[in-house]
C-alpha cells in the first residue's frame, strides 16, 4: 500500500498529541506535524523526530501554511484557540480558528487539491441545550449568547463546506483528560446533561477516519463517548472533587450559571461509532485514569487545604461575581 501523506495541525494539544501517538504506530503513514514552536511542543515531538516531519509555523501566516500543505493526501485539522482563551481574546480566536482554517483550505486547494480534510468542530455550535439535551447533527446551530468560540467553529465549517476539497466534520463532545480547572467550571449549569469522550478515543476516531473517506465524505458527524460516557454535570464535578481530595461540591448559591453554555447527549452519536469503531473508554475509565494522576500525598494535601482551594476557585466564578455585584446585565446572561 502506498504511503499516505498526512498533515496534522495542533499536534501538541491534548487530542492532537494522542492522535500523533496513534499515527506513528502505523508504518504506512508519512506524517507532517504543523504547530507553533514552543518548549512544550519540542519536548512532545522529540521522541518521534525520526518518524515525522516537523514544520513549525503560524497558521495565520500564509507563507508558513504553504510550507506545510504541499503534496498531502489527508489533513487532520485540530489547531484551534479554545475557551477560556477564546473568550478572553476573541480576535485571536477568530484569526486562528477562522482565518487560519481559510488559509489552510486555500493552500490545500492550490497544492494538494485531492486532499481529504478531516475537521474538528465542537458541540458548542448547538448552544444551550438544557431543555432539550438530546442532540442531532441536523439541529439548528445557535451558539450561546457571547460564545465566540462556537461562532468561529460554525464559520470554519461553512468555509470548508464551500471549498473545493473533500471533507468531513466531526463535532466533538466534551473532551475530558488532562483537563485544567478554570473559570469555565462555573459557566456550565450543574443540571447540564454531559457526555464526554476521552482524548485517546477521540484521537482513534480521527486516525480511523483516514481510511474511511468514502463513508465520511462531505458529511458531518457528532463524536461522543456514547451512553457509557454520560452523567449530569453536578455528578461529574462531585466525582472529580472526590478524586482530587476536595470533598463535597459545596459552593454557595449562584456560583454556577443557570444558562448560556452548551453540552448535551448525542442522540445520533452511534452513527460515527458504527463507521469508525473508536470507543473503548467509559466514564468510569476516565475517573480511574484521573485517580492514577493524583498521588496519595497530593490528595491528602488537597483534603487538608480544600476550604482554601474552593475559596480560590470561587474567586474565579464570574456568575458569582455578577451576583455579588448585582450586575444586572451579567446576571441576566448567567441566570434565569
TrEMBL record:
It holds the Pfam family 3Beta_HSD. GO terms for molecular function: oxidoreductase activity, acting on the CH-OH group of donors, NAD or NADP as acceptor. One of its GO terms (biological process) is steroid biosynthetic process. InterPro entries: 3Beta_OHSteriod_DH/Estase, NAD(P)-bd_dom_sf. Residues 8-164 form the 3-beta hydroxysteroid dehydrogenase/isomerase domain. Gene3D superfamilies: NAD(P)-binding Rossmann-like Domain. PANTHER family: DTDP-D-GLUCOSE 4,6-DEHYDRATASE-RELATED (PTHR43000). This is NAD(P)-dependent oxidoreductase. It comes from Gelidibacter salicanalis.
Amino acid at each position: 500500500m502506498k504511503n499516505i501523506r498526512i498533515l496534522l495541525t495542533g499536534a501538541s494539544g491534548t487530542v492532537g498529541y494522542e492522535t500523533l501517538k496513534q499515527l506513528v504506530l502505523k508504518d504506512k503513514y508519512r506524517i507532517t506535524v504543523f504547530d507553533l514552536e514552543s518548549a512544550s511542543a519540542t519536548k512532545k515531538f522529540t521522541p518521534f523526530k525520526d518518524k515525522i516531519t516537523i514544520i513549525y509555523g503560524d497558521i495565520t501566516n500564509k507563507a508558513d501554511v504553504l510550507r506545510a500543505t504541499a503534496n498531502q493526501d489527508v489533513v487532520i485539522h485540530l489547531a484551534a484557540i479554545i475557551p477560556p482563551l477564546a473568550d478572553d481574546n476573541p480576535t485571536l480566536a477568530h484569526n486562528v480558528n477562522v482565518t487560519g482554517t481559510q488559509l489552510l483550505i486555500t493552500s490545500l486547494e492550490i497544492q494538494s487539491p485531492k486532499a481529504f480534510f478531516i475537521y474538528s468542530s465542537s458541540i458548542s455550535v448547538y448552544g444551550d441545550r438544557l431543555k432539550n439535551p438530546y442532540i442531532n447533527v441536523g439541529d439548528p446551530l445557535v451558539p450561546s449568547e457571547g460564545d465566540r468560540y462556537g461562532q468561529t467553529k460554525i464559520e470554519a465549517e461553512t468555509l470548508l463546506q464551500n471549498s473545493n476539497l473533500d471533507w468531513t466534520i466531526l463535532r466533538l463532545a466534551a473532551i475530558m483528560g488532562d483537563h485544567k480547572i478554570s473559570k469555565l467550571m462555573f459557566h456550565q449549569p450543574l443540571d447540564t446533561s454531559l457526555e464526554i469522550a476521552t482524548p485517546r478515543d477521540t484521537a482513534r476516531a480521527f486516525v480511523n477516519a483516514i481510511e474511511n473517506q468514502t463513508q465520511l465524505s462531505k458529511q458531518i458527524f457528532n463524536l461522543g463517548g456514547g451512553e457509557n460516557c454520560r452523567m449530569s454535570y453536578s455528578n461529574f464535578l462531585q466525582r472529580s472533587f472526590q478524586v482530587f481530595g476536595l470533598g463535597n461540591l459545596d459552593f454557595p448559591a449562584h456560583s454556577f450559571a443557570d444558562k448560556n453554555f452548551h453540552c448535551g447527549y448525542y442522540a445520533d452519536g452511534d452513527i460515527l461509532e458504527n463507521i469508525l469503531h473508536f470507543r473503548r473508554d467509559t466514564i468510569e475509565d476516565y475517573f480511574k485514569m484521573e485517580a492514577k494522576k493524583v498521588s496519595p500525598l497530593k490528595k491528602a494535601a488537597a483534603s487538608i487545604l480544600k476550604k482554601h482551594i474552593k475559596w480560590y476557585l470561587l474567586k474565579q466564578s464570574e456568575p458569582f461575581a455578577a451576583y455579588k455585584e448585582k450586575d444586572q446585565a451579567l446576571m441576566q446572561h448567567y441566570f434565569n
